[in-house]
Amino acid sequence: MRKVINYLIFIALCYCCPSVTAQGKGDELMKQAHESLTQQDYIRARYMYLQAYNAYAGDNLYEKAVRCGVEAAALYHRENYYKEAFQLLFNIEQALIAGEQKTGQSMPALRYPVTRERLRMYIKLRNTARAKEQLDKLEGWAQAAQVDSLNTNLLYTQANYYYTFGQNTQGDKAFNKLVALYSQQKDYDKAEACYKEMIDMGRRAGNTAMLARAYERYMAWNDSTAALMAQDKYNELKAQYDGSLQTIEEKDHSLATRQYTIIGLCILAVILAAALVLGGIVLMRFILLTRKQKKIIETVNEHNAQKTKFIRNISTQMQPTLDTLDARQPGVQALKDFTAHIEELSALEDSLDSPYEMEETNVSTFCEGLMDRIREEVKPNVTLTVNAPKLMVRLNKEHTAKILLHLLQNAAGHTPAEGKIWLDFKKRGAHTHQFVVTDTGNGISETARENLFKPFSEVKDLTQGDGLGLPICALEATKMNGSLSLDTDYTKGARFVLELHA
Fold first, then answer.
1. Which pTM was predicted?
2. Pairing state between β 494-501 and 432-439
3. What angle do CA 426, 429, 435 make, to 5 degrees?
4. Cα 357 from chain centroid?
5. Distances (CA, A) of 120 to 84, 114, 127, 131, 202
């Protein structure tokens, strides 16, 4: 009955199909087969693939012949016509053998898909022994062809075979080999594609165990890779930043050298002031060098602007990746704090010309309130002292408090038990006053003092602090028409002086 139906379909299709030239017959038939497959007309698609296979095989177009023949075989065993499928694959294989003899060249890349399709049928039939035979042949064809795509497909196919027959250890080995290759190359997109392809293979094959195992491994890999990708991105940006910083430092050195040259020329101009002609020549050279110096300063300022933009871009580019990580991890939280400090530092640099608003403030109440905020942070029996008169002065409470609170918290962290911390206010003139924070802690080493207020002056473990607190406070003080400095004459701990001009 089946043969009669197929014959009737053959007659109807031959009647309906338009005539085509002999040269393009195979292409036209394959096109119609693709369209029928898209429309899920599997019987017509299978027939068209068979006719296309015959046309291509007759013209010795072996690659297209194999493609159409394998598609027809797949449609056969889709409807459980295994006998017809196996026979078709046998015919394709015989055609390839004849072609190899005719051309004198082996065709392992074309033998591969034929063997793979036969393997799929044996896997579907749960015939372990015959499937293993085809898998071994498949490996041989892939090695002989030496085509990267076939080696990749072989690993997928091996994993599918082993997972299907419950050999999970060997399945993991084949699958991990492919993922490890891409991970070593840092090609995370291809590694992710491997996991998704394995999940799709399990879904298409109806292999629940394989699907669950692949999905579980994918989720674990995805979690670990997110942190690696964030670290790689950070390292890349850090390397770019270090390069830019080195260039800027070289420019700074060149600028300092030229400044010394200008000073020397000025002294020479004073000494030779009596010699008008010679003094005129020196003056002319001074003017020329000043113009050149101005151009250098403009270049350095441009580089500083680029540095600020680059630093801001670091935090902007890192933030989306950091948001995907677990904020409870100390390293992740440290990176988030670091990016926030970078943004704050950049914002201050961009707005130094915009002064803060001032208001009349009671100094005594203001200082007592700040000292109360650190009482819970000090070590046992540390004495806290405020020396501030009941005096009204003009200042910005918010940002002055921010600086002093940072200094007091640092003092609390470094002052041992039984120590002392002072907050003093001193009037230095009609419009000048100082806030002085003193402690009896370990003090600050000579090597650390030089770069104390410079950002990014050393590489640090971010979980131990990023070292941007004091540079930010120094910029805050500058914006309030003041300065923040370390009293180097004080040797019993540390003493910081915040001087403001109303």
1. 0.41
2. antiparallel
3. 25
4. 41
5. 15, 10, 10, 8, 13
Neighbours of 322 (CB within 10 A): 17
In 3D space, the residue among 132, 214, 143, 224 whose CA is nearest the CA of residue 175 turns out to be: 214
- Written as one letter, the residue type at 198 is M
pLDDT tens digits for 383-428?
999 999 999 999 999 999 999 999 999 999 899 999 999 999 999 8
**Which residues does residue 360 pair with via DSSP β-bridges, in sequence order?**
394
- Residue 65, classified by CB atoms within 10 Å of its CB into exposed (0-12), middle (13-18) or buried (19+), is buried
- Residue whose token pair is 């670290």: 231
Which domains occur in the chain, in start order? 2-220 (1.25.40.10), 230-350 (no CATH), 359-501 (3.30.565.10)
Count Cα atoms within 13 angstroms, Cβ side, for 251: 18
Q: What is the pLDDT of residue 418?
A: 93
Give the β-pairing of 420-427 and 432-439: antiparallel
476 vs 317: which has the higher pLDDT: 476
Residues 6+ apart with CB under 8 A from 43: 9
Euclidean distance between CA atoms 399 and 145, whole angstroms: 71
**The two three-digit tokens of residue 434, written as one number:** 């100082």
108-139, pLDDT tens digit by residue? 999 999 999 999 999 888 898 898 999 999 98
Cβ contact 166:128 at 8 Å: no
Q: What is the largest CA-CA distance in the chain?
A: 125
Q: Are 199 and 219 in contact (CB under 8 A)?
A: no
